[in-house]
Amino acid sequence: MRQRLVIIITLVVVIGLLILINAASYVKLEPTADSELYPDRSTLNAGATGTRALYDFLYESGYQVARWRESTSSLLNFNGPKPATIVVIGRTVVPFSDSDSKELLQWVAGGGRLVIIDRSPDQGLLPASGNWHVGAHTTSYPWTDADPTNFEQMTGGVKPVPPSQPTLLVRDVKEILPSHFAGAITAATTSKSDTKTKPKGHAAETPSDDSESSETPPPETDEGTESVSKDETTKSSPAPVLNFAREAGALLAEYPHGKGRIVLLSDPFIVANNGISRADNLQLARNVVTGNGGLVAFDEFHQGRSATHNALIQYFAGTPVLAICGQLALIGLMVIWSRGKRFARPLPLPTVDRRSSLEFVDSMAELQQRARAHDLALENIYGRVRRVLVRHAGLNQNSTRAEIAARVATRSGMDPQKLETLMRNCEDAINGAPTNGKEALRMVRQLRQIESALGLRTRDREVKQAAGRLDL
C-alpha cells in the first residue's frame, strides 16, 4: 500500500508540473506599456520609446542595416562583413563592462564609427580627444507618470532648434524638435591656457567640415585605443564639433578617436518612434546613423536581446514545441521510474528444471534392478494394464479377475482362462510370491501382447495425456 501511495503522489506531482509548463507556455502576460522613465530603445520595439520605425525606414530605403546581437569582442574577430557604424541608443539593459568598452573603443580606433544616442551616456564610451573631454548630462528627468505617447507632455513649450554649424551631419536639416528631457553636451579642455568650457555651438579652432572623412590621431594612446603615428594619418584638430546649441548645452557632438569617429546625440526622442516624425528629426537621424554609408549595426546585445547560437532552439523559440518536448521527457522519466518500482513483496526468480524426465526413469530402473525389486516394476505396469482392461470390459475397479477376464474374452475372443491366470500370477508376484527377473520379464511381455492385441496402447495414451497437461 505504501508503494502505491508513493506512485499516486508522484503522478499528482507530475500532473501539476505539466499544468505549470502549459501555463507558462500558453498564458501570456499583458505587455507593460512604454514608459519614458524606463524606456525600451530596441529596434524590435514598436512602442513609443522604441526605434523600430527608424530601422524599418532605413531598411526600406536601401541602407545596409542589421541588428547586432553579438558581444563587442566579435567586432575584432568577426570573420564576416564587419559593420562600418555601431549605434547604441538609450540606457542599455545590459551595462557595458570595462572589457566591452575597451573592445568597442579599440574597434573605433581602428577606423570604426560609434554613434551614441543617450541623455546621460556611459563615460567609458566617451574617451578624451587630445586635451578635450566630452560629456553629457540630463537637465530634466522624466517624471514617473510621463506618457511617451502624449505630445504635449514630451515637447510642450519646447522650441525647435536650428543647426548652429553647416556640417555634413545636418545636411537638409532646417530645425529639429527635441523633448523636455533632452541632455546637454559640453566639451572642456584640460590645457592650462584654456580650462573653461567652449561656447556652445562652436567647435575648436579648426573645425572639420567633413566629419566623416577627417581622421585625427590622438597625441596619446587612450585606454582601449591603438596608438597611431602622426606620419600615417592626416593632421587635424582633436577638438569636438558641437551643433544645435542651446542655453543648457549642445544636442550633437562629433570628434575623432584614432582612425574612427564618435558621434553623440543627447536626446533619444529624436530617433524614437514617438519623436522621429517631428520637424526634421528623421533627416537628422538618417544623417547621424548612416554617415558615409556601409553596414549600420544597431546594438541589440546590450538591449538584452543577445543571439543564441543553438539554431534549433532559436527556431522553435516562442512556440509550444519546447514545452511539448519537456513534457514528453518528463513522462518518459516517469515511466522509467515506475517500471523500476515493485508493487508487492519481492519474489524469487523462477527456476527452470533442466533435467529430462528420462533421467528419473533411468534412475528408478537402476534402483529397482540393484534392489531386485521385480515386484515393484511389475506392479507399475500391471496396475496400468488392469485399469485399461476394466475400462475395456465396462466394469469397475472392484470387479474380480474372473469377471474381467470373461468380459474381455467375450469382446475380443481371447482365452479367458489364460488371461485370468496371467492376472493371478501378476497379483501373486506383487503380493510377495517368489519370482525372478526372467519370470517378471515374461509376464510383462504377455501384458504388452494383450495391449497390442486389444489395441489399448496404454503408453501412447499416457504420453498424449502428459502432453495435454503440459499444454494446459
* Helix percentage range: 25-40%
Range of strand content:
5-15%
CATH class of the largest domain: Alpha Beta
Low-confidence stretches: 193-234
CATH fold-level label of the largest domain: Rossmann fold
Number of separate domains: 2
Q: What is the architecture of the largest domain at the second tier of CATH?
A: 3-Layer(aba) Sandwich
Q: What is the CA-based Rg, rounded?
A: 52 Å
Class derived from helix and strand content: alpha/beta
**What spatial form do the alpha-carbon principal axes imply?**
rod-shaped
Q: Tell me the span between the first and last alpha carbons.
A: 33 Å
Mean pLDDT: 79
Tally of DSSP β-strands:
9
Strand order of the largest sheet: 1-9-2-3-8-7-6
Main β-sheet: number of strands, strand sense, barrel status?
A: 7 strands, mixed
What is the topology?
Elements: H1 2-26, H2 52-60, E1 65-68, H3 74-77, E2 85-89, H4 98-109, E3 113-117, E4 132-138, H5 151-155, E5 183-189, E6 241-243, E7 252-257, E8 260-265, H6 281-290, E9 296-299, H7 311-316, H8 321-339, H9 357-371, H10 374-393, H11 401-412, H12 416-430, H13 437-454, H14 458-471
Parallel strand pairs: 1-9, 2-3, 2-9, 3-8
Antiparallel strand pairs: 4-5, 6-7, 7-8
Describe the structure.
The protein has 472 residues and is an alpha/beta fold. It has a seven-stranded mixed beta sheet, sandwiched between helices. It has a two-stranded antiparallel ribbon with strand order 4-5. The protein folds into two domains: 277 residues, Rossmann fold; 115 residues, no CATH class. The longest helix has 25 residues. The two termini are 33 Å apart. Helix 10 packs antiparallel against helix 12 and helix 10 packs parallel to helix 13.
